[in-house]
Amino acid sequence: MSRTSENNGANNGADDVVEVLRQCLAEGLSIDIESVGTFRTDAQGHIRFLAARGKRVFLAYAIEDVAQVEALYELLEKAGFHPWMDRKKLLPGQNWPRAIDRAISVTDFFVPCFSRRALERTGRFHAELRYALERAQEWPLEKTFVVPLRLDDCRLPRQITTQLQYIDLFPNPAAGIERLIAALGATNPTSS
Questions:
Q1: Is the pLDDT of residue 37 over 90?
Q2: How many Cβ atoms from other residues are within 10 Å of residue 51's Cβ?
Q3: What's CA 109's distance to the chain center, in Å?
């Protein structure tokens, strides 16, 4: 194969990726490049790049709690954080288990959103929580990584209640959000 053929093959692959990205943007999806920023289409149809800002916050949740967690995502974004939520960040066709594990491994904070529904069902929420707790073992003891959040009056696992302080988003959601933002802003996990 000649160098020209090899380059054309590489260009065709790059062109294919660019076309998929354009289609995603045309469909109203955003494209996030971890720790770099997000490409979005504005109201006029122009592609805009928003640089990543603030601390990265991974939101783990059960699918039944998606509406509540999407609202939390928006509040954190408005407060200057860079939240990560699968429904907002994963691209069509992306290997989601690998992308989720990677997102957890590069995040500054892991926020498991506990609810009765999340605790009763099997699934990805528990796998993400276990992975984050393993990752937290690598952090210096004085650094905060896992910040448990209760969406309703559920009973938290003993491993959480014996080691970590949690935040309630009920009966006063505004006070809970204020505490969460203060907890995420009060520590700096990337400094020594």
A1: no
A2: 8
A3: 9
- The tokens for 94 are 């992306």
pTM of the model: 0.73
Q: List the chain domain ranges.
A: 3-51, 56-186
Cis preceding linkage at 92, omega within 30: no
3-state secondary structure 13-37: HHHHHHHHHHHHHHCCCCEEECCCE
Query: Which strands form 31-33's sheet, in the order they lie side by side?
Result: 31-33, 37-41, 47-51
Tokens of 88: 């907002």
Closest to 79 (Cα-Cα) out of 188, 183, 191: 183
Instruction: Say what the alpha-carbon torsion angle 107, 132, 31, 185 is, to the nearest 10 degrees.
Output: -40
The rounded radius of gyration (Å) of the Cα atoms in the chain is 19
Handedness of CA 127, 132, 133, 135 (dihedral sign): positive
Q: What is the pLDDT of residues 99-146, one digit of tens each?
A: 999 999 999 999 999 999 999 999 999 999 999 999 999 988 889 999
Tokens representing 10? Answer: 């590489």
Fold of 56-186: Rossmann fold (3.40.50)
